[in-house]
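Exercise 3.2. Students should predict the tertiary structure of the chain below and write it as structure tokens, then compare their answer with the key that follows.

Predict this chain's 3D structure.
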Amino acid sequence: MPEKVRAAVMVAPGRLEVREFSLPEPESGAVLLKIQLSGVCGTDKHTYRGETKQYAGTPHERDVPFPIIPGHENVGVVAATGGEVRAFDGEPVRVGDRVVPAANITCGQCYYCKGDFPYYMCEHLEDYGNSLSIARPPHLFGGWAEYMYILPGTHLYRVPDDLPSHIAVLTEVMAVTAGLDKAKEFSSPQEGFRFGDTVVIQGVGPLGLCHLIKARLLGAGDIIAIDALPSRLAMARRFGADHTIELQQTTEPERVEAVRGWTHGRGADVVVDCSGVAQAVPEGLDMTRAGGMFIEAGAFVDMGPVLINPNRHFCIKNIRLLGIGGEAATAYGPTMTVLAKAQHHYPLGEIVTHRFGLEQAEDAVMTSMADEAMKVVISPGVG
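Answer key:
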């Protein structure tokens, strides 16, 4: 292994530069991961734009502690371990294993860790690529690097042999679709998510597209995709969207009316907001039928308040509102199993549309916000 490694560092909003770091020896329980691919997440775009308030209203509310190495959607090969390290399934991790690390590290001691809560609710949560600054040795706490340092206690998930890395890199994003699983648990004639139900996805970037795929796998009826970018709507149709709505060609009342028109005037059974835009929430609530469910998925960057009418939006309509701040630790393994099987039925290999090297990290972020891009990834081996 080399003595020095490169990483793309976000030194401030709008500023990325490649820096060189010493390759550390892993401490007891730690892992040194040679990165194959690291995704550009919607959170990375927010951070690049200076929208840096995360987890607002929780015990771990914070601003991004620049400088950081971004990248929490990762797949790589174990290069070294600090003694015996076990994967989430209890089996030892070996050098040469291809793994996906969890995006978060928990304390294991707080109220939420000891209770039956999703692991991302930990009061002392740390996030790779977000909360761990390069000021903390050994610095390499994000996937936009040749090697990444995985701290002791981080959950690791072995990638199935038949799952290519360019699909495995979607694992964390697909695992955030747990809201649709939760909707299944609430299923009843009045509320929840039943076979044949209509599902609206607001924003079909990578997270929204994963929700679309999950909704189809769970037996959704009509799926309606909404986005500002025509290329993403085209991709949504490739993955089974029955109707699409382009934001730039419609007004909010027209979009709400279109959804009601496709649902016999009722509104959608389930609406999932993956847009990253706060104003989408009241619009999505207006699209949700009486007794339906609205899911706010994965938006842990504070984008400011919007006007909500408690009577009209919730009480009278008996709407169930579900917030999903991340993925369950138990979802990674099953997600990779499903991805390995689903690749034979869906064009999952087309979701990663662009790869960039470390020196092109800024181009990667800008491309991820443009038409014609779906999932953009950093590949340290790309020159």
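Discussion points: The domain at 177-324 is CATH 3.40.50.720 (Rossmann fold). The radius of gyration is 20 Å.
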